[in-house]
């Protein structure tokens, strides 16, 4: 190994929206920051996502503890969008039409009512729609839906545009971004991180942020107890092409086992499978069929649309499907990973919470349940509080 040695205030491992957002915030505060990624910036799970900011309609039983964090993120999104677009010069494709959830059958309607009751109890703004109200909003949906609701505060952003904007804003703030550079090892001195090692040398840093998504467990040098319990959950998605002047759909629509996300440029994203297949990224006939059939039952007219793209991504999913954010028992080592399906939604709070904690701001109340402490023995958790 060449013994090139560099020094930064902070090194971020992973150039997805979480890593780039944290680096941008740190650089804004005057920190010297490097971001390293084994691939191209923003081209992992961030690129494969759908960009839904669905804190409300995604609230399900046993996930109530996520609601305060997701609601905080949702409320920060408009200001985050404005600041990021100004700093980067790029639009992030934010759309605020709201989200529809539809139930084609009576059984689907019963499940929808159950979830809606839970959401209303937790303060989510949800409006029940009649059939005529639904067709007035989206006339191309399959007629005769058994039930439907509208969530006005669940918006969307173009996740790929977001990744590009964060990269541009980070670079403009002085962040050094190194694509195609794999981090092999963390370097430690006692209970403090001192930097990282790559194929080209060592980088010393007072702080290291592990934001490598589902790949985070593979970084050498982590004590066994601190290897984050994160795994990849595969999702296959399809994009079809609408006429942007006369789109088949204008709202984000959720149906049984599917969602449909219209983009301003005419793309319509259809998703997504949920598969425990490790890092397998193959598109399968069964996965494509499942996505197309579920979406077709909600929007029959999509069968006439040309296929634009198909891809598979890997949701970085923790043991309890919630993010792992903030400090660890190793001084100077911070986590920003495990967001599962909420990485884009939580991007503003992930950046603020982790960068703020590095800069000396206490972790806010809404984020305190989400440190690595919840997976550690009590004796070790005390160091994270």
Report what the structure shows.
With 385 residues, this protein is α/β, with parallel strands linked by helices. It has 3 domains: 4-48 and 161-228 and 320-381, FAD/NAD(P)-binding domain (3-Layer(bba) Sandwich); 99-152, no CATH class; 230-318, D-Amino Acid Oxidase, Chain A, domain 2, CATH 3.30.9. The chain is built from 9 helices and 18 strands. The protein has helices at 17-28, 45-48, 67-88, 106-121, 131-137, 159-172, 285-296, 347-358, 378-381, and strands at residues 4-13, 33-37, 52-53, 99-103, 127-128, 147-151, 155-156, 176-179, 183-189, 192-198, 201-210, 230-241, 252-255, 258-262, 267-271, 307-318, 324-327, 333-337. β1, α1 and β2 (33-37) form a beta-alpha-beta unit. α1 (17-28) runs parallel beside α6 (159-172), α1 packs across α8 (347-358) and α3 (67-88) packs across α6 (159-172). The protein is globular and about 65 Å long.
Q: Give the termini distance in whole angstroms.
A: 38 Å
Question: What is the count of DSSP helices, taking H or I runs of 4+ residues?
Answer: 9
Helix content: 25-40%
From N to C, what is the helix and strand string? Answer: EHEHEHEHEHEEHEEEEEEEEHEEEHH
SSE map:
Blueprint: E1 4-13, H1 17-28, E2 33-37, H2 45-48, E3 52-53, H3 67-88, E4 99-103, H4 106-121, E5 127-128, H5 131-137, E6 147-151, E7 155-156, H6 159-172, E8 176-179, E9 183-189, E10 192-198, E11 201-210, E12 230-241, E13 252-255, E14 258-262, E15 267-271, H7 285-296, E16 307-318, E17 324-327, E18 333-337, H8 347-358, H9 378-381
Parallel strand pairs: 1-2, 1-11, 2-8, 4-13, 11-18
Antiparallel strand pairs: 3-7, 4-6, 5-6, 9-10, 10-11, 12-15, 12-16, 13-14, 14-15, 17-18
């Amino acid at each position: 190994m060449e013994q090139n040695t560099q020094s930064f205030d902070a090194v971020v491992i992973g150039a997805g929206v979480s890593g780039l957002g944290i680096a941008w915030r740190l650089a804004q505060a005057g920190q010297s920051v490097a971001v390293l990624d084994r691939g191209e910036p923003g081209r992992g799970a961030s690129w494969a996502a759908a960009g839904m900011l669905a804190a409300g309609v995604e609230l399900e039983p046993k996930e109530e503890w996520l609601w305060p964090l997701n609601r905080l993120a949702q409320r920060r999104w408009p200001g985050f969008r404005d600041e990021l677009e100004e700093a980067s010069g790029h639009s992030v494709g934010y759309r605020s039409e709201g989200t529809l959830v539809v139930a084609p059958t009576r059984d689907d309607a019963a499940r929808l009512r159950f979830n809606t009751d839970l959401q209303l109890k937790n303060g989510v703004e949800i409006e029940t729609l009649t059939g005529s109200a639904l067709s007035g909003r989206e006339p191309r949906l399959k007629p005769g839906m058994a039930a439907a609701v509208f969530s006005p505060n669940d918006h969307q952003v173009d996740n790929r545009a977001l990744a590009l904007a964060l990269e541009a804003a980070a670079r403009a703030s002085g962040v050094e971004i190194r694509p195609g550079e794999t981090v092999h090892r963390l370097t430690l001195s006692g209970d403090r991180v001192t930097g990282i090692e790559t194929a080209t040398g060592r980088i010393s840093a007072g702080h290291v942020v592990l934001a490598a998504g589902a790949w985070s467990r593979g970084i050498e040098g982590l004590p066994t107890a601190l290897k984050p319990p994160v795994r990849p959950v595969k999702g296959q998605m399809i994009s079809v092409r609408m006429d942007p002047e006369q789109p088949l759909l204008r709202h984000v629509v959720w149906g049984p086992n599917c969602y449909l996300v219209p983009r301003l440029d005419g793309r319509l994203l259809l998703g997504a499978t949920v598969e425990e297949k490790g890092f397998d990224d193959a598109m399968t006939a069964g996965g494509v069929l499942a996505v197309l059939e579920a979406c077709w039952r909600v929007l029959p007219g999509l069968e006439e649309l040309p296929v634009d793209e198909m891809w598979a991504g890997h949701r970085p999913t923790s043991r309890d499907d919630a993010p792992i954010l903030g400090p660890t028992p190793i001084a100077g080592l911070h986590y920003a990973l495990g967001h599962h399906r909420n990485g884009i939604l939580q991007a503003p709070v992930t950046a603020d919470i982790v960068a703020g904690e590095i800069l000396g701001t206490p972790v806010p109340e809404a984020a305190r349940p989400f440190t690595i402490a919840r997976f550690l023995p009590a004796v070790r958790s005390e160091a994270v509080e």
